[in-house]
């Protein structure tokens, strides 16, 4: 389950959660540039139910490390919104081995949650230790067959590897589809 402000949350079936994570991983892999971005990518890879178990994944917006200054918080929100907007543009959805029918609704709900979330409320929960993976745990390696960020250093393979998805067609250099 993915929590927002004041008990607001995005509740999905286990299958829906997997779809939500898949489309976010595709978008985050295209946009990650700064250290924080790769830590968020690592958090996403930890939402892999094929590794962690069905129905036990999820995180709250308050658990993220939103930084200490208004500038840092604005940068975090901006990155999250850009990831969600890229996913909403159906970035690489044609490469998925299934039709992500409900993904758009999930993404729109989560985008609204990010927009209305007050990062100042995350400050007191930062020290709880269950937020973002640390800088040394950031997901910076790429999975070659799937061209997304890999779950290293937690385990080898991306969310598509653990789901048994075959290599994705490349957008350049690969065979025409
Ligand atoms: Zn992979």
Walk me through the structure.
By secondary structure, the protein is mainly α. The chain has one domain (2-162). 40% of the residues lie in helices and 5% in strands. The strands form two sheets. Strands 1-2 form a two-stranded antiparallel sheet. Helix 1 packs across helix 4 (70-88). It is globular. Residues 173-177 have low confidence and may be disordered. Bound molecules: zinc ion. The site of zinc ion (ZN) has 7 residues, from helix 6.
Task: Spell out the blueprint of helices and strands.
Layout: E1 2-3, E2 9-10, H1 14-31, H2 35-45, H3 49-52, H4 70-88, H5 103-116, E3 142-143, E4 148-149, H6 159-162
Antiparallel strand pairs: 1-2, 3-4
The structure holds zinc ion (ZN).
What topology, given as strand order, has the largest sheet?
1-2
Structural category is mainly alpha
Rg from Cα: 16 Å
> Any ligands, ions or cofactors bound here, and which?
zinc ion
Unreliable stretches (pLDDT < 50, length at least 5) are 173-177
Query: How many domains, in number, for the residues?
Result: 1
Tally the helices. Answer: 6
Strand content bin = under 5%
């Amino acid at each position: 389950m993915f929590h927002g402000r004041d008990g607001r949350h995005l509740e999905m079936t286990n299958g829906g959660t997997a779809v939500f994570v898949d489309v976010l991983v595709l978008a985050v892999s295209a946009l990650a540039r700064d250290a924080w971005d790769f830590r968020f990518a690592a958090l996403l890879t930890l939402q892999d139910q094929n590794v962690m178990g069905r129905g036990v994944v999820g995180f709250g917006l308050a658990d993220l490390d939103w930084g200490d200054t208004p500038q840092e918080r604005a940068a975090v929100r901006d990155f999250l919104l850009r990831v969600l907007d890229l996913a909403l543009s159906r970035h690489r959805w044609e490469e998925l081995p299934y039709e992500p029918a409900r993904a758009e609704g999930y993404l729109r709900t989560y985008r609204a949650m990010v927009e209305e979330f007050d990062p100042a409320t995350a400050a007191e929960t930062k020290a709880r230790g269950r937020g973002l993976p640390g800088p040394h745990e950031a997901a910076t390696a790429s999975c070659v067959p799937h061209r997304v960020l890999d779950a290293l250093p937690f385990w080898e393979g991306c969310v598509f590897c653990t789901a048994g998805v075959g290599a994705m067609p490349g957008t350049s250099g690969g065979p025409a589809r």
